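We close this part of the discussion by returning to an individual protein. Part of our work consisted of pairing the sequence of a single chain with a tokenised description of its backbone. What the numbers capture is local backbone geometry rather than side-chain detail. The amino acid sequence and the backbone structure tokens for this protein are reproduced below.
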Amino acid sequence: MSTTTTSLLTLPAPLRTFLASFPLHTYPAIPPPRSNSLHDPAQPTMWIHAPLADPEHNLLSADVECLKWQAHVALRGVERVRVRWDVAAAGGVGGRLPSVWVPGGEGGELIPAHLIPAWVERERGGEGAEGYRDEAARDESRAWVALLEGTVHAALITFHPASTTARVSSLAATLAPPPAPLTGVSSLLPPYGARVPAAELETRYAEAVGALSERLGGDKWFLGSASPTPLDALAFAYIHTLLHTPAPKLRTQVTRRVNLVAWERRVSGLVRAAFVKAGEEV
């Protein structure tokens, strides 16, 4: 029976001759890379959107969302963090930047933006104080955060959209394709909300910048804090971005406030000093 089966599976001579010209070679399996590969990060590395200009000397991202976290890391006392901007946003956690790659385990760990504060506290040995002088100052900081993330951020999106990548909700960003609108012509629900005219938004923005300048006054840090707080990191990110925007109606409101310009210049030096370009000696 085996002889019959073998004869049935025998290839015709012309086909055997043709296939003989293409012999089948086998090679040994490639072993996996060692866990101590040179590709493992030796120092924490933050993935950011590219700086505005002169990346050899300017390591601050042109994207205000990335700059917020750069300032947070620097002003909380973490030093010598490498930065790179050759990674596309799709390479970050959730398809967004910034992300922080830290040593440890097999090839390190990639941390999303919302976990950066916890990582910073681990780097600082678990010191959890935020720097506000009292609970009242902490409560007041929430109002200023709302002003920066609300009015000032809206002005950036409207008059200089390239300055920020945060223009969609976290829900919409996780769905592909994005969800259909909940209201309007294509929905059973009537439209709601109000569209703020550009002129009114510009007025609100000018008032917000004026309020920030008045609240800072001649203090070293916002709200009279003795050391930098998360509010200072947020304020620096917006003020720095506004000072370097090509939109005159945004930039002029800040340059008219001398104390904001001087404060941004001083804090900018502190933030820059905390980062090193990836690939350079640390």
